[in-house]
Amino acid sequence: MNIGGGKGVDLLSVEYRKAVSSLMLKASLSPGLKTWTEGNHVGFEGTKERIKKMFDKVELSVSSYDTAWVAMVPSPYSSQAPYFPECVNWLLENQSHDGSWGLPHPHPMLVKDALSSTLASVLALKRWGVGEEQRNKGLWFIASNFASVSDEKQHSPIGFDIIFPGMIEYAKELDLNLPLGQRDVDAMLQKRDLELKGSLGSNTKSREAYLAYISEGMGRLQDWEMVMKYQMKNGSLLNSPSATAAALSHLQNAGCLNYLRSLLEKFGNAGWELIGILGWRSEVYWDETYRCWLQREEEIFADRATCAIAFRILRLNGYDISSVPLAQFAEDDQYFKFGQDFKDLGAALELFRASEMIIHPDEVVLEKQNSWSSHFLRQGLSNSSIHADRLNKYIAQEVEDALRFPYYANLDRIANRRSIEHYNVDDTRILKTAYRWIIENRLDKLKFARQKLAYCYFSAAATIFSPEQSDARLSWAKNSVLTTVVDDFFDIGGSEEGAPKPYSTALHSTISEIGVKASAWQARNVTSHIIDIWLKLLRSMLQEAQWVSNKSAPTMDEYMTNAYVSFALGPIVLPALYFVGPKLSEEVVEGPECHKLYKLMSTCGRLLNDIHSFKRESKEGKANALALHMIHGNGVTTEEQAIREMKGLVKSQRRELQRLVLQEKGSTVPRICKDLFWKMSKVLHTFYEKDDGFTSHDMLRAVKSVIYEPVLLAEF
């Protein structure tokens, strides 16, 4: 967010984003599934520290636009003299060679921003009768680039269609001769009047706040009594120097004056705007953000996007906060109906993301917020101008991704890739060495087994991608392969006499290998626990095979008691807990909290699987939760009814899982361990987005994007 809240462009520097992108990609993608060495670890720690410093870094950039409006404030002692002559001097000394004021190396799609800054600067110089040479150069720049005003492909600063015509009217009052065609000026004023007519006809607080934020462009139309309701504790109007300067010019308000003075004392002769990342990702800021949340600090609650981000970050990191404060944005569904500004789209996106953090069954505020924000975002995507705007096509892609991949099905590795694909990074691929284990154990010779190795490696690489967690990743991937093989053995090629030798050998050797490594990590023998996990899985699969063989139908309770185990996530997730860092006692890893996390995760997966495999398994005579629900359910007679109820059960189980993962108070399982259950839940929702995961074309593309394909960059 801007310190000054100026109407100019608030962008991350391209070089900064490229640097972060490159570092993040090297830290998360390059090591793949290969063995982690001490040398790699040292390099990784250095990379992490560099990334942390970059995220903590705040870059400040001069805002010519805000400086010009502050320069226009008259002295209380003489209306013919500026209150802040140092700002006037800064404008005289900082004009670009092409006659403009603004960003030093502006992007070709930011001409409207340069026009706003240049016209404001020319007005300030004309107001005090100085800088005739600079004014003439500025007017030449405006005349040469005026066609961009009506160019829909150009990026528009906030409120441009109201503020820029307002400045043109002010130029007339100052007898400033603008070299513009009257027809073009009339068209612009007409467009401004239509927007204002709609805005002034609305009395929503959100629209009032918007009009207060663009006060400098309102001129005589502004209701200053209404505007001052939005003065913040620091004296500013919504942290905007330009709006605050306009208010000071009209009202001589002491709070406005103190705010502008504080800016000049802090930053020198120019108003400034903040560009960069404010450290939301650093733990050092979370407690401070939590304090501000509890105290309802306006720095958070005055801005919908900031409030939504704070809520999401705090809840994701285990802070026990209520969603009730978000109720203040309940009327935003009305506000967002007034045009579809890119700024609005970004704010709606953050509110939508916040609404996905539902962890309690009665969070009506978030339910409603999710409904209207998703509707607005879909409407925004239908607006062709967002796709035409080269600078904002990324926000369009973010919106598409958010709607298509909800939080509970958005794998971190793929999300990270989507976030950095627009920037220049090195080609990286996973090495082929991890596949040798398949051949060495002759698993490729088992005719009945599905050869879906890439999917198994994908779930590991997309879930546990930190380089220092390579042992956890290998355990996850190998056990994924083995559970797929054993599932197919019981489904297709199995018999009660025994399993084929390659499978038995692979299972024995892999359990032994993982047990030895896990015991070394934990400094105690945990092999017996890993063996027990596998025995429970085999017993549960044998039970299902016997149901089919005996042609018997279990009750729903009998089925689910067995089915969450037979879904085969135990050998994948539970041993991996031993490799992510913390020392885990037997009481913790085999205790009720860990078991509940495992059961909730597995139940979600089993129900999702059974919904999608209902028709196939019914033909094969296999027990299926959906079929049993239709047989034993109270009044449920149709497949559609049963599916709706099953999906509702999945949602409730998923939310309870998320609540337990985020819960800090009374939890004995370390957060990094609990995250594995949630990440596997994300994998499941991704796999079963459309069908059974192993036949989805979209799933295949996701696998390729993580394992095989280098990141390709798009130019801005």
TrEMBL record:
Keywords, A to Z, come to: Lyase, Magnesium, Metal-binding
Task: Determine the domain of life of the protein's source.
Answer: Eukaryota
Location of the Terpene synthase metal-binding domain? 442-496, 505-655
Q: Name one GO molecular function term.
A: terpene synthase activity
Q: What cofactor does this one take?
A: Mg(2+)
The cross-references to Pfam families, in alphabetical order and at most eight, read:
Terpene_synth (PF01397), Terpene_synth_C (PF03936)
Instruction: Show where the Terpene synthase N-terminal domain sits.
Output: 287-403
What's an example GO BP annotation here? terpenoid biosynthetic process
Q: Which InterPro entries match?
A: Isoprenoid_synthase_dom_sf (IPR008949), Terpene_synth_N (IPR001906), Terpene_synth_N_sf (IPR036965), Terpene_synthase-like (IPR050148), Terpene_synthase_metal-bd (IPR005630), Terpenoid_cyclase/PrenylTrfase (IPR008930)
For the keyword Disulfide bond, the answer is: no
Its protein name is: Ent-kaur-16-ene synthase, chloroplastic
**Organism of origin:** Vitis vinifera (Grape)
Q: What is the lineage of its organism?
A: Eukaryota, Viridiplantae, Streptophyta, Embryophyta, Tracheophyta
